[in-house]
Amino acid sequence: MKKVLLLVTASFVFSLATKAQSGYDIKFNFKGIKDSIMYLVMYRFDQRIIADTSKRIKNGVVQFKGKKDLDKGVYLLVNQEKSTYFDFFINENQKFTVNLDVSDISNTLKSVGNKENEQFFSYIKFIGNKNIEFAKIKESTKGKSKTDSTKYVNDKLKELNTEVKKFEKDFTESVKGTFVYDYQNLKTEKEPVEIPKASNGRPDSLCQYYYYKSHFFDGVDFKDERIIRTPFFADRIKKYFDHVIVQHPDTVIQEIDKIMSKTDGCNLMYVMLLSHFTYKYEQSKIMGFDKVFVHMVDKYITNGNAVKCGVYTAEIGTKIKERVDIMRNLLLEAKVSELYMIDTTYAKQVLKMGFDTAKTSKSVTDLYYKNIEKLTPIFSTLYSIKSKYTVLVFWASDCGHCQTEIPKLDENLKALKGKIDYKVYAVQTKDEIEAWKKFIIEKKLDFINVFDPVHLNNLKERFDIYSTPVIYILDKDKKIKAKRLSADQVPDMLKMLEEIEKNQSKK
Hints:
By secondary structure, the protein is α+β, with helices and mostly antiparallel strands. The protein has helices spanning 10-16, 105-108, 115-139, 146-174, 179-187, 205-214, 233-244, 249-260, 268-282, 290-301, 305-308, 314-328, 347-355, 361-370, 372-375, 400-413, 434-443, 459-462, 489-506; strands at 24-31, 38-44, 47-54, 61-66, 73-79, 84-90, 95-101, 110-112, 340-343, 379-381, 389-395, 422-428, 448-451, 470-474, 480-483. It has 3 domains: 21-128, Sandwich (Immunoglobulin-like); 205-328; 340-506, Glutaredoxin, CATH 3.40.30. It is built from 19 helices and 15 strands. Helix 3 runs antiparallel to helix 4 (146-174), helix 4 (146-174) runs antiparallel to helix 5 (179-187) and helix 9 runs antiparallel to helix 10 (290-301).
C-alpha cells in the first residue's frame, strides 16, 4: 500500500493571509551593487519562499512593490547568485527604505521609515563588528605556538561571548513588546541563573534539564502567525521534539497536544504544526512512533478539523483514515488476529482443489465452502503455535532482498536455540509453490513455512505489507512486541525482551 504523504500546499498557506490590503513599497538603495536581479524571500517554517522579484535594478536601487500586503514576518534579501544579504522585518509598516553599502553591510545598514528595522540593524551592526574583532584575534596568533595561540584565542573568545551575551540581553529587553523581541526570544536559550548543587557537589543536571524543558517556549505566542515566518521557529520545534523531551510516543503525544492547544483555530500556525507533526510521525523510522501518527489522525483529522481548515480535502482525509485503521491494529502491544494458512506439506493438495485457477472472489469463496471439511484439519494457524515468542515473517521467494534476509534470519537465530523459547512462522506472500519449496529446501530454513492459497487472510492490507520482508515479534498471547525488524535485529530484540521480563520479575 502506498503511504499517504501529508503535505500542505503553498497555495493554501498563502490564501490564509489574504486580508484587507493596502500594498507594499520597499526600496533598497545599494552602494556598490552589481546584481541585476534580486529576490525578496520569506521564511515559512523550514522553507524559504520567493515573495517577489526585482528585475529593474538601476543605479543600485532595488524596489519591491505590490498592491496587496505581504505576509508579516522576517524576510531575506537574496541576490541573483542565490547568496543572502541580511534579514529584515515586514510588519504593519510595509512602505520603507533601506540604505547600505555592500562593502560594509553591517555598519552601513540604515532603515528609513521603519523603526523595527532600525532597532534590528543596530543589533546586526554590533554582532557584525564582534565577528570582525574575533577574526582579527585569530589573525594575530600567526607565528605563536599552538598552545599559546589556543589559550589566547579561547581567553579572547570568552571575553567576546560575555560582551555579546550582555548586549543581547540588554537589547532584547529594550525591544520588549515588538516583533523584534519575538525574533530574539525564539533564538535565545533559556538557562537557569542559579543551579542548585547535587549530592556530589556538582551542578544538579536534572534540575538544569527540567528548567530548560519547562522554559523552552517561554514568551512564544503560538497564536501569532508571524513567528512561523522567522528563521528560528522550525528549528525550535524540531529541537524540542527530537532532543529535549523523552523519546517515547506517549510523551510526544502529550507534548504535541499541549502545543496544539495553544494555537488559534484554523490559522497558519495550526495548519503548519498539524501538517508537520502528522507527516513527521507517519514517516518515522523509530519503532512504535506510528502511534503518534495514529493519534494525530484520530484527534485532528478524523473529527473533520483538518478538512474544515483546508489542510486536506475530504477525499484525502478518508484515505488517511483508511490507512490509520490498518495501522491501529498493528501498534505495539496490539493483539494480531488469527491467520489460517497452509503448510508446504499440503500445498499441492490444496491447489488441486482449483484455488490456483480461480479468477474471481466469488469462485474462491465457492471453492472454500465446497472444500471446507478437507481444509479445516490441515490449516496451520498462527494461534496454534505454543511458544514464548513467535517471529512472524512475511516474505516472497522471488524477492531479491528476501533471498538475502531470510537465510540470514535463520542463521542468526541458531545461536538462540535452546536458550530462548521461540518459533518462526514464515508466510510466503505469493502463490508460487515450486520456487518457494525449492528455496526452503536449499537454504534448510528451520521455520514453520506456510502460504495462503485459499486467500482467506488479506495479508497485505491486514499487516501493511507494501514491501518484503516484514518481520514481527509476538509474545505468547500474540501481542506485537516488535515490528519491521531486519534479520540482524531479531536475535538482539529477543534477548532484550527476555532481559526486560527478567528485570520486571525481580521487582
